[in-house]
């Protein structure tokens, strides 16, 4: 699964690099404008993927911090139980 995510992350970036590379653009104005359109499209795909990854990262971060909060509460309860038990 991690390999799939890495491939998905790399694919838009590679696409942008290919489209923006000067050797791939022709000197003709019509082809240059098509290249710019493709470049903008690839860039928007890349930015959308980047935003999706950022949202997922924040979601995972929130879940981790919520779990840490629960662990801290349980640790406090256990410490209290040990203190009262002795």
From TrEMBL:
<dbReference type="Pfam" id="PF04949">
    <property type="entry name" value="Transcrip_act"/>
</dbReference>
<feature type="compositionally biased region" description="Low complexity">
    <location>
        <begin position="23"/>
        <end position="44"/>
    </location>
</feature>
<dbReference type="InterPro" id="IPR007033">
    <property type="entry name" value="GORAB"/>
</dbReference>
<keyword id="KW-0333">Golgi apparatus</keyword>
<dbReference type="GO" id="GO:0005794">
    <property type="term" value="C:Golgi apparatus"/>
</dbReference>
<keyword id="KW-0175">Coiled coil</keyword>
<protein>
    <recommendedName>
        <fullName>RAB6-interacting golgin</fullName>
    </recommendedName>
</protein>
<comment type="similarity">
    <text>Belongs to the GORAB family.</text>
</comment>
<feature type="compositionally biased region" description="Polar residues">
    <location>
        <begin position="1"/>
        <end position="12"/>
    </location>
</feature>
<keyword id="KW-0963">Cytoplasm</keyword>
<feature type="region of interest" description="Disordered">
    <location>
        <begin position="1"/>
        <end position="44"/>
    </location>
</feature>
């Amino acid at each position: 699964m991690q390999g799939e995510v890495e491939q998905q992350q790399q694919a838009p970036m590679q696409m942008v690099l290919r489209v923006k590379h000067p050797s791939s653009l022709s000197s003709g104005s019509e082809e240059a404008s098509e290249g710019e359109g493709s470049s903008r499209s690839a860039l928007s795909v890349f930015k959308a993927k980047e935003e999706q990854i950022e949202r997922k990262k924040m979601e995972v971060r929130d879940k981790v911090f919520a779990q840490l909060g629960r662990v801290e509460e349980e640790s406090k309860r256990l410490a209290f139980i040990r203190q009262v038990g002795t």
